[in-house]
Design a protein that fits this description.
Elements: E1 2-10, H1 19-33, E2 36-41, E3 45-52, H2 54-65, E4 70-80, E5 89-93, H3 100-110, H4 116-128
Bound molecules: flavin mononucleotide (FMN).
């Protein structure tokens, strides 16, 4: 299996970003494709983990790269894995008025089985707004 972790910038700022649309599309497609992972967004940036069979992850990531709803896509890691680190496909989104501690607790639950490096990338982004390189 293949696991890709990337960050990008949303083309539309804040809650106007088409997060509901992305979520619906992704849940539908990823269930068919056997892809799991996590999509995090604070309304400005995205950080996504995509994992599953190579034959599914490659075309999925190609579609995502071409999507005009985000830009400046940067791959943080691209690795072979032998087991899913994320049991399902989830999305965490912090709105401006959400409590940060509740949001972080939700993130930590989703990251329970993630590798150390994936967890560090997420927690650094959430804590600082910047990605660990
Ligand atoms: C930040 C972001 C994350 C996305 N994640 C996924 C995903 O995990 N799976 C997926 O199929 N599409 C995802 N998409 C949507 C794809 O870019 C593309 O629009 C979609 O796969 C097309 O599916 P359709 O042909 O069924 O409409 C994402 C888009 C964005 C902007």
């Amino acid at each position: 299996m293949r696991q890709i972790v990337y960050v990008s910038l949303s083309s539309v700022l804040g809650d106007a970003a088409d997060l509901a649309g992305i979520l619906t599309q992704s849940r539908h497609n990823n269930a068919i494709d056997g892809i799991t992972g996590l999509l995090w967004s604070d309304g400005k940036s995205f950080l996504q983990v995509l994992e599953g069979p190579r034959a599914s992850v490659e075309p999925c990531f190609s579609r995502i790269v071409q999507d005009s709803r985000h830009h400046f896509i940067r791959v943080l890691s691209d690795t072979r894995i032998t087991a899913h680190q994320f049991g399902g496909w989830n999305m965490v989104h912090r709105r401006a008025d959400d409590r940060a501690d509740l949001h972080d607790a939700q993130m930590n639950r989703l990251l329970t089985n993630a590798s150390h490096s994936v967890r560090t990338q997420f927690t650094t982004l959430v804590a600082t707004g910047n990605v660990a390189t």
